[in-house]
Amino acid sequence: MIIVNVQEIKKYHAANLVLDGVTFQLQEGEKIGLIGRNGSGKSTLLRLLSGHEQVDEGMLTVKKELQVGYLPQIPAEFEDLTVYEALAYGFRELRAAKREMSLLEERMSSPEAAADPVMMEGLLQTYAKLQERFESGGGYEMDTAIDQAASGLRIDRSRDERRFGSLSGGEKTRIALASQLVVRPGLLLLDEPTNHLDLQGIEWLEGFIQRYEGACVIVSHDRYFLDAVGTKMIELEDGEAQTYLTDYSGYVKEKEARLLQQFALYQEQQKAIKKMKDTIRQLEEWGRIAGNEKFFKRAASIRKALERMEKVKRPVLEQKTAEFALSPLDRSGRKVVVFEGVKKQFGARAILNGADGSLLYGEKVVLLGDNGSGKTTLFKLLLGECEADGGKIELGARVDVGYLAQQEPIRDAKLTVLDYFRTVGALEEGAARNALAHYLFYGADVFKPLGQLSGGEWTRLRLALLVRRKPNLLLLDEPTNHLDAASREALEEALEDYPGTVLAISHDRYFINRLAMRVWALGDGKVAAYLGNYDDYKAKAGEQRSAFAGERLDSAFADKKAETKQIESKPMPGTGQGTGTRAGERGIDARSNARRRDQLELEIAALETELAREDAALHGIVDSALLEEGWLRREALQARLDASMEAWMEL
């Protein structure tokens, strides 16, 4: 069923036409990736779909009573709420109903209500209506939904009473996202939902969206994420929308094929147009020479046909992208960074506890870890911005460090892009404008105040300044955040060709797969190193978890076997050992028992293997329904294993 119908809509920002004849439809349950370059109108379209803005021309219709979930930005009223109140923001009416029910319960238990049947009847009717509204709105599942979203997005529930306004930007973003997920609207609009999430949070969100019954429109530049959740891609380009019925990888292939086909049609049409113009010119010339009006009429007829012809737009086969011309000014020594036994503690909390690692010149390493695991702390230690509590950190010879922070506050929001770049980069205006053009800041863009820059534009500007410094060691903290897909790919290409050393914090799995030679996983205060990219890391980490689970099962089985042998070695009470008759009986039974024991041991081994697989599958599941289903399968396997173990022990 169609829930949203968009037909030939136009939207202006002042005199700037942002959307020009956009047309598409949304069906129930669809998962749509809304993609396009920075500034192409994606966020504008989300505001139109949510009703925050109105179209200037065209038609946008939404299914009656469709609940739409969208937060264009963190609401100002969140600042004075507690964390729990912000998480339950979408349940404001239900929580108000719950408070009214509690008040009614107190009044119904009062002596006055007990003594007045009419009053009691009125209270009961009001209570019944409130209870029906509370139940139909999902009030009894409210806390469960909040727990699931908070757990999946790694939100610390021990801080429920903390004021929302005191949290960091990343924590606020995760809580605001969770406040939308728990409501489960019919249409969920998400704008860059993976920003500020760690890998576990991103993978949980992927599972949530895949199982989500409602429709989703997701603005994201995370290509891996769009492949995992997207069933349809809508690309905004030059104000127009193009729909692709596939995931992101399929979109890339289909778009390339469409552009090549469109270019071939364009070339054929241009040939036909040239031929028609040549014919018009020749007919008019013949008409003048021969003085024959028929030639002019024929030429006019062809000219009208040419004017009526629907022109094929010339496709842009290669869009302009930022040119990250990375090159170090000087080569460092072979050993770039070495740290051993590094410890760092904040208060009672140990962030790093004996972390070891080393970087060699030319290596590309990506640092992974949960939010709060100490990744940024390790960067600050390498930069010398704070001191370690223990261990040693050494930088190699001639190491020149270039650092890109994940978030860098704008100190003077009124300063223009050009003035900021000239001041920090120490350049004349002409050279500065020429350099900025390489990073897609053209014409009037260079006079834009810093406070009006998007997240992607601010990141591009900071990268432009970093490139000018020509460092030979790059420390990059989430460098692809806010960048559009084209800029991400340009940055990846530049980093691949960069001869220096790169250590990057990233949760962009596409970026990691393309760049990483090694992966460092930071957990429990230590660094574990894995050769290869993200897929290699995930496979090896999964093998280690399975092996660990198998070792625990083997250990438990060995303990039970040892206990059984001890039981068997003890003489039964009241029996005489060594009598001939009983020794003969034991000899007859021994062969039968040995065969049965062999069968049971094979069965136990198979069950333990199956149980280990089930344990590995259960790892990381937070959805209660899936967890319960998996746990029931595991319990059935465990019961069979216990029965086999008991039978084995009795032999």
TrEMBL record:
Coiled coil (residue ranges): 590-617
Domain ABC transporter: 4-263, 337-549
Keyword Coiled coil: yes
Keywords: ATP-binding, Coiled coil, Nucleotide-binding
Disordered: region residues: 562-586
GO molecular function terms listed in the Swiss-Prot or TrEMBL record: ATP binding; ATP hydrolysis activity
PROSITE patterns, alphabetized: ABC_TRANSPORTER_1, ABC_TRANSPORTER_2
NCBIfam families found in the cross-reference section: ribo_prot_ABC_F
Protein name: ABC-F family ATP-binding cassette domain-containing protein
Biological source species: Paenibacillus rhizovicinus
